[in-house]
Amino acid sequence: MPGGSSAEEATRDAAQTSGTPAARDAPPIAIPSDVANSSTTSLPSSGGGHAAGKRPQLAGTAVATDPARIESAISHPGTVRINVQGAFIVEDEATTPGGSTVDEDFKHENKDIRLPNHTAVVSHIAVDIGGSLAKLVYFSRETGTDKSKQPEVELGGRLNFLKFETDKIDACVEFMRRLQRDHHAANGHGGPELCVMATGGGAFKYYDKIRDALGVEVLREDEMECLIIGLDFFITEIPNEVFTYTESDPMHFVDARPDIYPYLLVNIGSGVSMVKVSGPRQYERIGGTSLGGGTLWGLLSLLTGARNFDEMLRMSDRGDNTAVDMLVGDIYGQGYGKIGLKSTTIASSFGKVYKMKREAERDAEDHGGLANGDAREGEANGDGGGGKELGMFRAEDISRSLLYAVSNNIGQIAYLHAEKHNLGHIYFGGSFIGGHRQTMNTLSYAIRFWSKGEKQAYFLRHEGYLGAVGAFLKRQPRNWGRRNSLEALHPIAKSMARPES
């Protein structure tokens, strides 16, 4: 729905929509292994708690007095406003963080967000194209039967979430063309043209490909800003989105907080970025590491022959990292209680490999044979790893060990940055997590251990779509619908919109 440009229209809309938002083996050396800025329109919520369709009630008292910000919001109202009243995550298809439907070219996450009260036309889609995955977000309309009204009525719509391997970017573009055709069919050729909001490195790399294939406007948005806008939206607007993880309570949903800032965002994609967020669109990248999801994917593809990231995660579920990792107990024969190390603490990731290979080689030389066969023999026979024996080491054990190594490293670096900047709330996002329980357990335990329980790790059910959702929301009014933003605009906006005669 095109937004008006007058101050009077902005004030009227503000008055109508003002409301509230609603491892088993853990990190190495010192952690036991057996512990193992939103732009959406918010309408008043009707309840609290965790139930689907209910949004937590939050009270806010902050009042903005910056005329420049107010005038910017009034003068540039954007293209469409998303009504999130009664928003909830669809639970009928999957109830766990990692539920999804897999197609040959893409994965459709079975956790769409229903927007039962949004009826305006949405004429844009959003894509976040990273080094490994392209994440797509689009709105689709719902229709159904309402016995009290007409047989066919509009029931709002939903946000859909898909991801493609970036190597299959052509399939992603083709899917966008299909959405474009559906958009034209639903709105007619005289309706608004579909627009593509793009972020991530691929927004630049594949800009010409997308624009030429669809023949539409492609708006490139800043990656970091989109991440923050997307995360803020999920934290404040969507119930049952943010949760903490422990082995005893693997999915404990948390209520939205009125004071979400400051916090640390740890976005784990191919690489890792760590961003300090102090307020709406107030952020600073304070660190990161090149050892991220791309590292795990690349090394496991070499070591195990696994064909995709999900296959690697499934293998790690069946693995035993103690077959390749050196534990404190392997060194001391027991724990090192004086400094708080249990016998099951990982002392060295992959620490047993060299010693075991040398022993096997010496044994083979003594008996005139090979050391447990050639690790490459399985690949030559077409096994390609995937659960087969890789010499003396199983692909599953290697997968689990490397997953822990990468996750432990990220967890400790995240803690150090949070400690340095005095940040108590740490949100982990990015497709690396993928609702995978071992990964979340490792990251969560690392934060609890190193901080002695003073800091908390949070996860999201749409952790891989922060950037895509942020880009989707960027098509809307600047600062519109942030918690308290409408309430803050109202007093001064009225005087600006209706000057005394």
From TrEMBL:
Domain of life: Eukaryota
Pfam families: Fumble (PF03630)
Protein name: Pantothenate kinase
Single Gene Ontology MF annotation: pantothenate kinase activity
GO cellular component: cytosol; nucleus
Annotated stretches, region: Disordered: 1-63, 364-386
SUPFAM superfamilies according to UniProt: Actin-like ATPase domain
Bias (Basic and acidic residues): 364-379
InterPro entries: ATPase_NBD, Type_II_PanK
Keywords associated with the record: ATP-binding, Coenzyme A biosynthesis, Kinase, Nucleotide-binding, Transferase
